[in-house]
Every structure is written in structure tokens, then in C-alpha cells.
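Feature request, filed as a ticket because there's no other form

It would be nice if the structure record came with a short human-readable summary line next to the C-alpha cells. Right now we just get the raw output. Example of a typical job, pasted below so the devs can see what we mean:
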Amino acid sequence: MVYDAVILAGGKICDELKAAAPYDNEAFIRIAGQPMILYVYRALRQTDYIKRIVISGPGQELQKITPEDENLFFADEGENAIESLANAVQLLKNYSISEMVLVMPTDIPFITRAAIDDFIEQAERTDGDFFYALTSKEVNEKKFPGVSRTYVHLKEGIFTGGNLFLMRSEMIDKALDMAVQLVMRRKNPLAMGRLFGFRMVCNYLLKKLSIDMAEKRFYEVVNIKGKAIISTFAEVGVDVDKLSDLELAKEYLGNRIF
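Raw output as currently delivered:
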């Protein structure tokens, strides 16, 4: 099956990164001579699962650094991630939106075709409406030793929130706000727990929280069948949002050949 994809490229750069990379938007940060968003775009273009790509961000500037592509579109960035994603989805609806839509941020330059393919293939084998990637600490440390991430201790292991989301189109309007709330809280376990209630926080603090419990609570709160997809690709769980990440990206991607 072939899907549409959205890259959220409206994120403002933090002060720490801006001191090292003088840009206002993460998408334009250069890594090994390439704007960060091109790493994400190229990975999407390499997979057979994706046809149309919508980049939600400063369109005029983004068009100057992206290649000509009849299946690449630009949507206006919103005041926040919710509006940016909504704008992209509305644009896709004009072209008969695909059954499911893959959503990702612009700050994941490590992402690869293999990681995207694996995530989609796992989701296709799973009964759900909203799919959210997780990667384990073990996987991240093996690929990127010493990388600094925020982890949660679940009954199944130690995980960090990934940066790939797959949403069933008919559920997008319903899931839109929750998707962005998850993105905003993915590095704060307690904030994530508060989103779903006191019981979740208690189970987390007592290290009794399981993925199955979280999925069931998700359904109770939003009436959407959400499913965690555990990825064995660290590229899914490592993004560039601080100086140490940028240095890692420059070191790791410096020799990549396009």
C-alpha cells in the first residue's frame, strides 16, 4: 500500500542550537553541507511506501532548498504543530488523501528508508488507528553510544518516544490534538502520564506501567485504537534538539553519500 507523508518543518530552533547554527528554523540547519530537512525528505523518497510528501513550514524558503518533485507539496506553517499538521492534512484532502498518513518532524536527519519501511510494515500487521514509535535504550546506546535521551521505565523495558507516527485518515481530525500532545510530551514521562490521568502516573512511578495498559487507557480517553510500534532502528528515536545532538549528527552523517 502507498501512503502520504507529512514533514512538520515549522519548529523554531532553541537558543543553544542557534548559537552554533544561526538559523531560525531547524529545517535549515546544515549538517555536512546539507539542510537537515533534506535528510528526512530523501529517506521518504527512497521508500516505496510513500508517494506524496507535504512539508508544513515556511514554503518559499523551503522550496529554494528542496528538489523539484511533482509529488512534493508545501503547506503553511501554523502557530503551533497542531495547526501545521492540520494545514498539511487539508492540502492532502484536495488530492484524495491516502488511507493512512505518516507524520514526522524535520529534526531526525538520521532517519533511513529501512527504519521507515520497518515501522510501516509493523503497523500494517497491527490492528489500530494510530501508531506511535518507541525505541529501547539498548538499541539507542548500541547505535549511538552515550547519546542523551529521555527514557521511560515500562514493564517491557526502557524506552524513549520515537519520531514516527502513522494515523488512519478517517481518524485524523479526531486524533490531531492528541498526536501533537504526544509529540510535545514525548520527552517528559510524567507530563505524558498526566495526559492520561493519575492512575497512569502512579503505575509509572511504581514501575508497573505496561505498553498494553497505556494503549487501553489511550482508547478510554480518546476512543482511538492507539498502538506502540517498537522499532529496532535507533534512527527513529534520536533527534537533533540540542548541541550534543548536532555534534553527533555532524560526526555520523559527515561521510554519508547521496
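Something like this underneath would help us a lot:
The chain has a mean pLDDT of 86.
The CA atoms of residues 57 and 171 lie 23 Å apart.
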